[in-house]
Design a protein that fits this description.
This protein is α+β, with helices and mostly antiparallel strands and 553 residues long. The chain contains 23 helices and nine strands. The strands form two sheets. Strands 1-2-3-4-5 form a five-stranded mixed sheet, with helices on both faces. About 1% of the residues have low confidence.
């Protein structure tokens, strides 16, 4: 009992240290005592260390857990810093978060198994991997429950004039401390439970999904040649959906096999379903690769597509390994288990490689898109500037050739006051005869709104000079009256805003329809260049090809 109480106090103290650290980080950064890069690296270090440490307490002593947490955190943070340097002095959102999480979580079962002298023992790795997942999930669930109790208690005590909990939550450090202590205490209790907490019920519930996923995947594959593929099949979202199916199927197959050496799944029906799912696994992975390749062939590489191809290669590796193991006959379960260990190490290696210059997605993308511009494609400067130093170098090279998009000096000027005449000269209007209505709306909105639209028009300007904005004026709601308009901005991901000017007052209206807020290009071009038609329904809607816009109230 004394050992259990001591562990609870120690892990609660560790959680308190973590909470205090994040509070100090927030305070120092807000006071400009840390740069954005320093704050990012400190936050990453604390996140990696404390989660790794708390996850391994239970099967390991606190000293060995701390040592393992340092061993996992140091290379992961170093690689994160290396990857962030692709963006120079800027610290911006980049595609290293997933790789960073893999580097701090996936090695943990191997560290625990190595501490027991059984680093490559699948049974130990399987048990510890799922135990770590349960400990971390239970810890964070306990944090949520604690906050629910605090909020409810505060409301109850507030009825009788006691506000001590409100004052605690209003302090800067209070919420951080409460969350940290609750996380440490929750994980301590789970670690204390040890063998009494069985993975069996969790795995049994997951196994129930194997026939469901098998049927859904089978129906999809049967319907695919009959129905054909839609235009959205060659999109990033379609590929990501297929890869998510691969990830789910891989997880379910792994849970079905459990950790019993070369023994197959005991129940015949579940064994057949597991084998069938394993044999089918390469097909959605291959379709995801095909979908990505269609996209890349049309629009070149982007960091998201490089990531998609990397994940697809990993999914295909799992699919081929699983299907091959089953097709080779008896002993298939043991072969899949051994493949899981090898592919987990491959995943760690790929995550590390992703964060090094060897697999620089921004450089690959910038070079690809620069080649497209040289070949005659129209791209905006914003695409290149999102890709850090590699994008800036590609942009400079294009300008040296006299082929680059307009310089960002236009955007700097967009911070100055924007007049109606300035924006009117820049923003196209459809139909062309609606220029007067456009100008009335531009004159009725405030200066800040005109600046935002001005920046949107310039930010996504194409190499041929076309701006990335458009105002469509139409009588969308006949009974409303006034000047009604939809403003579109962005060639790649089109944003829309609805407006009505009536009696000198501008009111925002929701916009409904298809082909908006979409990562697929085409909406802005369709309305700017295509044939439009105002189609009557319960309210009028504007159509241009497959795209539809309508205002609502």
């Amino acid at each position: 009992m004394g050992t259990a109480i001591g562990r609870r106090l120690a892990l609660a103290f560790a959680g308190a240290l973590a909470g205090t650290g994040f509070w100090l980080l927030e305070d120092y950064y807000a006071s400009d005592l840390l740069t954005a890069r320093q704050a990012m690296l400190i936050a990453a270090t604390m996140t990696a260390f404390f989660h790794s440490f708390l996850a391994m307490v239970g099967p390991l002593t606190m000293a060995r857990s701390a040592l393992g947490a340092v061993a996992v955190t140091a290379p992961a943070v170093a690689l994160l810093n290396l990857m962030s340097l692709r963006h120079g002095d800027q610290v911006t959102a980049f595609s290293g978060v997933g790789a960073f999480l893999i580097l701090i979580l996936l090695p943990l079962p191997f560290w625990v198994a190595a501490a027991r002298g059984r680093m490559m023992d699948y049974a130990v790795l399987f048990q510890e991997a799922w135990a770590i997942v349960l400990r971390l999930m239970s810890g964070w669930l306990f944090v949520a429950v604690v906050w629910g109790v605090i909020v409810l208690s505060s409301a109850l005590l507030g009825m009788v004039g006691i506000d001590v909990l409100d004052r605690l939550m209003d302090t800067a450090v209070g919420p951080w401390l409460i969350s940290g202590v609750a996380l440490g205490l929750g994980i301590a209790v789970m670690a204390e439970a040890g063998e009494r907490v069985s993975l069996g019920p969790v795995l049994m519930l997951l196994r129930l999904l194997i026939p469901v996923v098998l049927v859904v995947l089978g129906v999809f594959l049967v319907a695919l040649p009959v129905q054909g593929v839609s235009e959205t099949f060659g999109t990033l979202s379609a590929a990501m959906t297929l890869l998510a199916v691969c990830a789910i199927a891989t997880t379910l197959i792994t849970t079905a096999l459990d950790c019993a050496g070369d023994a197959p799944v005991p129940r015949r029906g579940m064994r057949w379903a597991t084998q069938a799912l394993a044999v089918l696994l390469p097909i959605p992975a291959g379709l995801a690769g095909w979908s990505l390749w269609l996209r890349i062939a049309d629009y070149g590489w982007t960091p998201q597509r490089v990531l998609g191809v990397t994940v697809t290669a990993l999914a295909l590796s799992y699919g081929v390994a699983y299907a091959g193991a089953v097709l080779r006959g008896p002993g298939w379960a043991g072969r899949i288990r051994r493949a899981n260990v090898a592919l987990a190490l491959v995943t760690i290696g790929l995550a590390a490689l992703w964060m090094t210059p060897v697999l620089n997605a921004e450089r690959i993308s910038a070079n690809s898109q620069a080649a497209r511009v040289i070949a005659g494609a129209d791209l905006s400067e914003r695409q290149f500037t999102r890709w850090g130093l590699a994008g800036e170098r590609a942009l400079a090279d294009l300008r040296a050739r006299g082929m680059g998009p307009p310089a960002r000096a236009d955007l700097a000027a967009a911070d100055a006051p924007v007049t109606v005449a300035d924006l009117s000269a820049l923003m196209p209007v459809r139909p062309p005869g609606a220029a007067a209505a456009r100008d009335r709306i531009l004159g009725a909105v405030d200066d800040e709104q005109r600046r935002l639209w001005h920046r949107a028009c310039l930010r996504d300007r194409r190499t041929d000079g076309r701006v990335g904005c458009l105002m469509i004026v139409a009588n969308f709601l006949p009974d409303l009256g006034g000047d009604q308009a939809v403003i579109l901005s962005g060639w790649q991901s089109t944003m829309v805003e609805g407006m009505v000017l009536k009696d000198g007052v501008v009111e925002r209206l929701p916009v409904e329809g298809s082909g908006i807020y979409s990562t697929a290009p085409g909406a802005l071009a369709a309305y700017l260049e295509g044939e439009m038609a105002l189609t009557p329904r319960r309210q009028n809607e504007m159509r241009a090809g497959d795209f539809v816009l309508r205002l609502s109230r």
